[in-house]
């Protein structure tokens, strides 16, 4: 391993360890009340307690399930509509004003309406998740289809491909990088919206968002920090996982600028 | 197969702009089994003409017919020809073998058979051992071979080539030209080859169709009666030099005219 590569692995770890050590030191030396800033050791203790009594796992599982349930619905509907819009001008023109109006709308502002319509149960949580992910997925898919190199379409036609084969064998694979980009964006906003929906609604009193707001209301600051740590880790894991899937699904689009082997 | 271009015009109408006449009543019979080079200044409609011949673009007026000289029967436009593109248009997500086999795949030929035929065709164009590589992992010359194999595997009697070697470096270009000569001399397809390089047109062609600057018309057809099989050594012969001079003067007029018109 080169020196640069060793530094690339150890520096991020050192950065985190150093920061935590400094935090612990400052809290202990200055005697900061744990209600404002608990020491890392106290956060770790709260975390392990949550893990042992099961509250962490159940709430984490509920939140992750909501994220993926809504995201899956959005992915299927979003990609399908995006492809349809790319295929038919009529569909594109019908959908366009709605997308233009609803995409920039902060989805969090739909929470009151969703609670009126759907109550605060599971449907509400999943609907918020699906709605938030849907728009970036549709728009990216549509952009991907529109940006397909027309030369490839002509070449496929010349080689005897039917209209349907051009859709499945040229336009869809060519749009894959854009579609995945939309899925990334969609996943990012879904995580935000599911947690927000759990904080505001959430009659079933479960989920990481509920855990967080509940701990905050009773000034259980070490639990607040413990929840934040868990969500940060989950977010990072999901993003890494997506990047891994990208590389497997569209290796030709990753590092498109890289030179030949 | 003979390609008959009869009074073909192409007018591009763009909303809010004056229509552009890309091709103006072009008439020519591209003889069966011959290598015809279309030569002319940029924007003379050479590429448009072969796209019309290939059935990928409709003429504004006039007709294309594809006729078998042996029995006088005509074939539908598009079904007898295959195009090799200037930008190659290889599918970047498909590896070499699946790029070459694309035409067979959409025709419903089994995976085993089409891969076998693709491998044979890749060997013919001199590219072995790169079956699983993606186009971006190949050099420019290797990509040319993939595109050539993808066209040849269709076994169509007419090969349409739109400046396929324009982007290559000088050495690779010579190698590919000799490769194409060898393949043409072995298969005797009807080839329509668009180029703006005079030496390339003389080296490869049986005739050079010189076109005028926009609107594209045929200015002159120059037969190239140099013996085959040919190789790059041909460029050093006095006959080559004389032909070069003749074509160069024809082309210079057109290029100058195109430049003054653009400036005006």
Question: If you had to describe this structure to a student in words, what would you say it looks like?
Answer:
The complex is a heterodimer of chains A (261) and B (264). By secondary structure, chain A is mostly helical. Chain A has one domain (39-249): MetI-like fold (Orthogonal Bundle). In chain A, 79% of the residues lie in helices and 0% in strands. In chain A, 34% of the residues are buried. Chain B is of the alpha/beta class. Chain B folds into two domains: 2-80 and 158-263, Rossmann fold (3-Layer(aba) Sandwich); 91-155. Chain B is built from eight helices and ten strands. Chain B has helices at 46-53, 96-100, 102-106, 111-124, 140-152, 170-187, 198-204, 238-263; strands spanning 2-12, 20-30, 35-39, 61-67, 74-75, 81-84, 158-162, 190-195, 207-211, 218-223. Chain B has a six-stranded mixed β-sheet, sandwiched between helices. In chain B, helix 4 crosses helix 5 (140-152) and helix 7 packs across helix 8 (238-263). Chain B is globular, with a radius of gyration of 19 Å. The chains are: A mainly alpha (261), B alpha/beta (264). The A-B interface holds A 149, 151-152, 154-162, 165, 169-170, 173-174, 176, 250-253, 256, 258, 260-261 and B 54, 56, 78, 82-83, 85, 87, 89, 91-93, 102-103, 105-107, 133-134, 136-139, 150, 154.
């Amino acid at each position: 391993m080169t020196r640069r590569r060793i530094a690339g692995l150890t520096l991020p770890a050192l950065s985190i360890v150093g920061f935590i050590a400094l935090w612990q030191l400052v809290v202990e030396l200055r005697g900061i009340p744990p209600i404002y800033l608990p020491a890392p050791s106290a956060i770790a203790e709260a975390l392990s307690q949550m893990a042992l009594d099961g509250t962490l796992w159940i709430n984490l599982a509920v939140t992750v399930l909501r994220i993926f349930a809504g995201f899956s619905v959005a992915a299927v509907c979003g990609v399908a509509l995006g492809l349809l819009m790319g295929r038919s001008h009529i569909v594109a023109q019908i959908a366009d004003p709605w997308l233009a109006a609803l995409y920039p709308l902060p989805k969090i502002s739909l929470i009151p309406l969703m609670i009126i319509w759907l109550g605060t149960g599971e449907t509400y949580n999943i609907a918020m998740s699906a709605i938030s992910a849907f728009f970036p997925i549709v728009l990216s898919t549509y952009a991907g289809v529109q940006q397909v190199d027309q030369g490839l379409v002509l070449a496929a036609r010349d080689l005897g491909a039917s209209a349907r084969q051009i859709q499945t064998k040229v336009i869809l694979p060519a749009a894959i990088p854009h579609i995945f980009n939309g899925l990334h964006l969609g996943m990012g906003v879904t995580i935000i919206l599911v947690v927000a929906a759990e904080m505001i609604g959430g009659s079933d009193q479960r989920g990481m968002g509920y855990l967080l707001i509940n701990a905050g209301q009773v000034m259980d600051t070490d639990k607040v920090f413990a929840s934040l740590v868990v969500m940060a880790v989950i977010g990072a894991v999901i993003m890494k996982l997506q990047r891994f899937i990208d590389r497997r699904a569209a290796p030709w689009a990753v590092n498109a600028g890289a030179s030949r082997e | 197969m003979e390609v008959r271009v009869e009074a073909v015009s192409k007018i591009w109408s763009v909303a809010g702009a004056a229509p552009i006449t890309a091709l103006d009543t072009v008439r020519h019979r591209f003889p069966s089994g011959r290598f015809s080079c279309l030569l002319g200044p940029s924007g003379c409609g050479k590429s448009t003409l072969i796209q019309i011949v290939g059935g990928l673009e409709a003429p504004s007026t006039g007709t294309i017919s594809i006729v078998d000289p042996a029995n006088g029967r005509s074939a539908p436009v598009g079904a007898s020809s295959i195009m090799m593109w200037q930008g190659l248009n290889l599918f970047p997500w498909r590896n070499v073998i699946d790029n070459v086999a694309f035409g067979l795949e959409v025709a419903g030929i089994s995976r085993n058979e089409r891969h076998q035929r693709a491998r044979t065709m890749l060997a013919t164009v001199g590219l072995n051992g790169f079956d699983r590589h993606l186009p971006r992992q190949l050099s420019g010359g290797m990509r040319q071979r993939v595109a050539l194999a993808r066209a040849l595997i269709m076994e169509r009697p007419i090969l349409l080539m739109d400046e396929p070697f324009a982007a290559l470096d000088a050495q690779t270009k010579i190698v590919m030209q000799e490769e194409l000569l060898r393949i043409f001399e072995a298969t005797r397809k009807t080839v329509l080859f668009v180029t703006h390089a005079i030496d390339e047109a003389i080296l490869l062609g049986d005739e050079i169709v010189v076109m005028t600057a926009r609107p594209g018309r045929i200015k002159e057809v120059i037969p190239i009666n140099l013996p085959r099989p040919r190789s790059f050594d041909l460029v050093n012969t006095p006959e080559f030099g004389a032909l070069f001079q003749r074509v160069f003067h024809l082309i210079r007029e057109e290029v100058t005219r195109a430049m003054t018109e653009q400036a005006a």
